[in-house]
Amino acid sequence: MEEGRTYGRISGNILLMKSLLDHVQCTACGRQFSADQVHTVCPNCGKVLFARYDLPQARTSIPRDFSNRPSTMWRYRELMPVRDEANLVSLGEGMTPLLRAQRLGRAYGFERLFIKEEGLNPTGTFKARGMSAAVSRARELGLRSFAAPSAGNAAAALAAYGAKAGIETWVFMPADAPEINKIESAVCGARVFLVEGLISDAAKIVQQAGPKHGWFDLSTLKEPYRVEGKKTMGFELAEQFDWQLPDAIIYPTGGGTGMIGMWKAFDELEQLGWIGKERPKMISVQAAGCAPIVQALQEGKAESESWKEAHTVAAGLRVPHPFADYLILRAIRESSGTAIAVSDDEILDCIPEVARLEGLFVCPEGAAAVAAFKHLAARGYLRPEQRVVLFNTGSGIKYAELVKSQFYRLNPADPNALDAV
Fold first, then answer.
1. Of 38, 107, 134, 288, which alpha carbon lies 20 to 30 A from 384's?
2. Given pLDDT bands bounded at 50, 70 and 90, which one contains residue 117?
3. Could you tell me the pLDDT band of residue 403, with boundaries at 50, 70 and 90?
4. CA–CA gap between residue 120 and residue 95 (Å, rounded)
5. What are the structural domains, with CATH classification, of the chain?
């Protein structure tokens, strides 16, 4: 359907078919391991592990019509990693709207511009998807104490899903992370620690202290299952476009789990026979003050180097050295995509532009995707006839302090004061 579909949420039973989870496999060396054991990274080479499914069985047993299934990411239950329904930890995440950005698109000559609005997830960001999947599977495997470093939103999501599951959570984030993320995490009962430094500094604390305290590390792509929640964004895009993928996806990239997950989803959908070999151009957008993927792509490298003195107003993009950089770069190159850096000024300018044209209060990371679209449209890299999807990864309401001074206006009680307006 050209305009995309918008789905609401329903509550109640989310039992679908049984998971077809088969094993986990290293994305680098290819070694396979039992899915019924606890895993972090590949013990052979230290790289990312992916969950693998019995796709031949899925091809014959899963109908492509999901219209009668719940409007959450768990509608794809057979291709998700939780075996027993009793272990699902869900707050209604996923199946977010795919909105046609008509006025924004026309302002730049594009008639088929869309925004995937992830700000409507629980806790206000796409991080809910990954934490729902990871916490559910970890609980199923018997784990009862979790920790994670975060730029802010992942901490809030872990705290919420940990609370829902009744599981102890510890979160570590930069001291200058958005205030709302600190509050969200604390109010959900997480143990919150603020770190002087970046998310990489927070990660070091989790790695060093985790074994002593018995925490299971839910860091980005340091275990196999957060990415399974994120891949459902790819399933949803395909379903919302009637199993025809867009021409380009512009995705704000910090740790890159969303881009990696969607690339995995597209591969699984092709193996099911639901889509062909065609793929969208995968376009990574980063902040000019922290652009390791952009630099690595420009230099023709398979992995990135740690970015020095990372800084940006978009907290989610302030990831100086993504652990799965090689997978991000692989998706970009295999799709003939690209990576682009945008300035903080451009990010801040795009927040009100999208709000005034589309009524969406996007997060800084989502605004970065809009800024990247404008650059790529002006260069002719993107063409007006193409179908382009921008990802807004969170609600701008969580970042109100960032733009308040620019847009805050007093409305005087004195009616005569309106004469001066």
1. 288
2. very high
3. confident
4. 9
5. 98-123+224-405 (3.40.50.1100)
